[in-house]
Amino acid sequence: MTIDLKHRNFLKLLDFSSDEIRYLLDLAGTLKAEKKAGKEIPRLAGKNIALIFEKISTRTRCAFEVAAYDQGANVTYLGPTGTQMGAKESMKDTARVLARFYDAVEFRGFDQATAELLGHHGIPVWNGLTNEYHPTQCLADLLTMTEHSTKPMNEISLCYLGDGASNMSDSLLVGAAKMGLDFRLASPHELRPDHELVAQCTQLARASGARLSITDDVVIAVQDVDFLYTDVWLSMGQPESDWGRRIELLKPFQVDRRVLSLTSNPRVKFMHCLPAFHNRETEVGEDIFWKFDLDAMEVTDEVFESDASIVFDQAENRLHTIKAVMVATLAD
Question: Buried b / exposed e across 314-324, counting CB within 10 Å, b at 16+?
Fold first, then answer.
């Protein structure tokens, strides 16, 4: 089967077939091997790429910039205060201007609708994160799991613990449904994914063979699982006044040594998209300690620093999977 993604937007995994996602993962593996061997071919020479960030970023910005430079492209970073977009110029007008200057645009921001609007002007647009989805992170996670498992993808089991209504849990739900994983979501009832998305993913799972389950029972959710995954309890843009309620809801879903042992799998791996509040070595972590007497939140430092943790493999794979998206949709 020939896969051609030239000029395609990459806005959410729902837009891609399982074969197309697998193609991107295979391409990422090839590009990763080329880089490691010092034999990378610059497939994007002469291309100009705009990186729009309504939200600040470490991994996403660095991954897009390094991926572009590795492939010979030029980038312009437009930060949260770097444009007139939405203030003195409409998003639609900005998009039409950028389409005259650039060959592709990356967008990291709040509303998925903004990313979709940017994607209607003739050049590829890539979603670096929105409130609804984080597809480049999910690609990196899928690649990381295949690297750390001897099982075929449709036999891998993954449990996400925490906020089940977040962009990360939604993206993993979609990715699992598309690729046939055994996916368990352990979250409080108040923080469950949208019913329409669950119905859509359930339909996708019938075609892929994926097994999807949603529960508030951590013991059941993690049994015999291959990978445990969590994310921060309060996402960027949510008011800090929500911390108390979020901690009350999500503390039972913290990934600690007990949760690892409950899997009954001595080879279980821990995953996190980062940044993680696993200690007091950040302003937020220290503030939470003094207000709520917690020295860790979604994951304990013991687990984060353990041999089970593969979080920095995930972080590295952001580069390789983002590069695959760029090459697949933009290279001549």
Answer: bbebbbbbbbb
Query: For residue 92, is pLDDT > 90?
Result: no
d(CA 9, CA 49): 14
* Residue 154: C-alpha distances to residues 18, 112, 176 (Å): 11, 29, 9
Active site residues: 108, 134, 137, 231, 273, 318
Whole-model pTM above 0.90? yes
The two most distant CA atoms of the chain are separated, in Å, by 57
Token digits of residue 179: 């690729």
Secondary structure letter of residue 299 according to DSSP: B
- Hey, is 106 helix, strand or coil? strand
Angle between the 135-147 and 311-330 helix axes, to the nearest 10 degrees?
Answer: 120
Of 98, 181, 178, give the one whose Cα is nearest residue 133.
178
Query: Distance between terminal CA atoms of the chain?
Result: 20
Mean pLDDT, the chain, whole residue set: 95
> What pLDDT, in 10s, does the model give residues 132-152?
999 999 999 999 999 999 999
Amino acid at 284: V
